Amino acid sequence: MSLLDNPQPANDFENIQIARARVQALQQKLESLRIACRVNYFTFSPAFTTLRIKNGEETSMREYNNIDLDVMQALAVSSVRILNPIPGTKEVGVEVPNAKVNPVYLKELLIDEEPNKSILNVPFGKPAMGRSLFYDVAKQGPHMLVAGATGSGKSVFLNTFIISLLLKATPDELKFVIIDPKMVEFSVYNDIPHLACPIITESSEASILMKRLVVEMGERYHKLKLSGCRDIKEYNERIRDKNMPLMPYLVCIIDEYAELIGQDKSIEDSIARLGQMARAAGIHLVVALQKPTVDVISGKIKSNILLRVAFHVAAGKDSEVILDSRGAEKLFGNGDMLVSQSGGEPTRAQGAYISMEEINRVVEACKIQRKPDYFPQFLDLVEKTDDGDGVSLNDEDKIYFDRAKKFVLSKSFFTKTNVGSFLGVGAGRADKIVMALLQEGVIIQDNRTGKYNPNPDYIE
Ligand SMILES: Nc1ncnc2c1ncn2[C@@H]1O[C@H](COP(=O)(O)OP(=O)(O)OP(=O)(O)O)[C@@H](O)[C@H]1O
Ligand SMILES: [Mg+2]
């Protein structure tokens, strides 16, 4: 953590002066709107001030509907978010941008972490009150959606996310897969030992990699089953004493998801499959994009992504796609975020700013520890019809495939030859069908014996 910049004390002198004037201006405005209330006091968060209002006995919450523009005008601010009420209180909150924004330092967030949390417990930002906001991606995700308009702070946030994990986990404990179609945002991480494969920038490679992640998930399930463990955590606890290699968490970060899926729709199927069952296997997805629309973030994908991070978006309907509620259209930008988990009430927080110098220091410190040691199964991301990637079946193959599927699901184990003789086809076609079954997640291969088994977790 000594590699990170030290937080500078916030200088709120100017903000306090202005907040006092705003309290008065708001009180006057609400009086002129005939809302009986008292603007009581204000609290600061790094990017915004919350003016807190106590209602009169008779005042209805509805009186605050549609007063945003009046308030913006009275306080001369570009944006306002009204919390009616502030969750957990009887007060109404009026959030307005600070006159002077105090940057949040990553170190400031990290030192707030409670002891004995998992490695995947990461800081998200500083809320208006209380400790920094942390989420355990494994427990509270297991997958995450990050969305916001251009320039709203997604990449800065993803960088703080990656850096936090680099500081917490060794390359044996955690590996990243980074898909970065923009080619610039994450290139600084090339060659760190925490990568499972070099950073992927081509959509064709990304779609193959996602399929291989699905296969990896199946293999991990099989391994867990053989060792009688419920999940990766239990497995690693048991392995640790035996001096065997750990099963690393795999965190797959996909930036500019809409761009990728626009070029290859099959990525969506892989994500949906990983979405359903990747938690126990320690595979976690982080999907980032600018403009969430329902066709890009379909229900099939969303139902398994429970951690949602919204930065400023253009319209309320964008916010609804991300958080299932409005609000992100009222954020102020520059790392101002709303985070919701499992559809709960979103929490507003200010993300940390991280400079390129800080990132470089951490990256260099990681690089000198060790050379990257890539997963062989995530290399050579080219379509190969003979080893299971992008196996394309013609119509006749598809009929064989359906028959083979019924056959293999009725067996406890089998070989390619068994499948070939059942179907009455040659070795080449049997091979292709088995590869397609592997790719679909219907079956998994036992690394030790080379035989195939039906995937116990296969869901039709
Ligand atoms: N947490 C933050 N604190 C202060 N400033 C920030 C923060 N996050 C972002 N910014 C400012 O906003 C700029 C743009 O942020 P960022 O590159 O993360 O946007 P983005 O959402 O990834 O945009 P795009 O979709 O175009 O890639 C940053 O260069 C920085 O100046
Ligand atoms: Mg970006």
Question: How is this fold's topology laid out?
Answer:
Blueprint: H1 13-32, E1 37-44, E2 48-55, H2 68-75, E3 81-83, E4 92-97, H3 106-110, E5 121-127, E6 133-136, H4 137-140, E7 144-147, H5 154-168, E8 174-179, H6 203-226, H7 232-242, E9 249-254, H8 257-263, H9 266-281, E10 283-289, H10 299-302, E11 307-310, H11 316-323, E12 336-341, E13 347-350, H12 356-369, H13 395-409, H14 416-423, H15 427-440, E14 443-445, E15 452-454
Parallel strand pairs: 7-10, 7-11, 8-9, 9-10
Antiparallel strand pairs: 1-2, 2-4, 3-4, 5-6, 5-13, 11-12, 12-13, 14-15
Helix pairs in contact: 1-2, 5-12, 6-8, 6-9, 13-15, 14-15
Bound molecules: adenosine-5'-triphosphate and magnesium ion (MG).
Which features characterize this protein?
460 residues; 4-stranded antiparallel sheet; 15 helices; alpha/beta; binds magnesium ion; Threonyl-tRNA Synthetase, Chain A, domain 2; binds adenosine-5'-triphosphate; Arc Repressor Mutant, subunit A; Rossmann fold; 17% strand
